[in-house]
Amino acid sequence: MNLSPRIQFLIKNGLKGFVWLLIILGAYFLFKEFVISRTPDAWMDKIYAQPLLVYLVYCFSEFFFGIIPPELFMIWAINKDTIAHYFINLAFFATVSYFMGYLTFLIGRFFYKRDGLKRFRNTLLKEQWPLLKKYGLFLIIVAALTPLPWAAISLLVGSAGYPSKRYLKYALFRFLRFAIYGYIIFQTHII
Known about the structure:
Blueprint: H1 5-36, H2 40-48, H3 51-63, H4 70-80, H5 83-111, H6 115-123, H7 128-135, H8 138-145, H9 150-159, H10 164-171, H11 173-190
């Protein structure tokens, strides 16, 4: 069966996303087993005592190109309180990610047709720009579902002058990513 380049791109990056999720979960379980389990109060009390700080760090990370993977915040949320609290946090994380992506999209739109953008695009976003030209709005879906930098892709798409309504429609796939990854993290912590 011959798959289109767009589907191949989606599958390739989807597999990378799941590999990264497995690496993050593996690192977390190792950290939990060898560090946290030996001094659990010292680690957990510091982190869980300041949820507002965790939420602010998450918002900052989502705005600045996903510095910290959202899966780490999902792991934090599942260990924090009840299952209902986890799903509320998961919805919060997905919504923040969606809107931070839209905020960076709007920043990109601001720079659309400005001379400074060319210099910015050629230095910071040189790897993503050819992908946008090749895959167009399909890139939004792939970035929403995979570890491609969501905010950077959103900024790039905005800077290319894509319409807001189309961006917002395709960006809804971000919620699907959080649902899938959140479910996987939930299942790994029930056992």
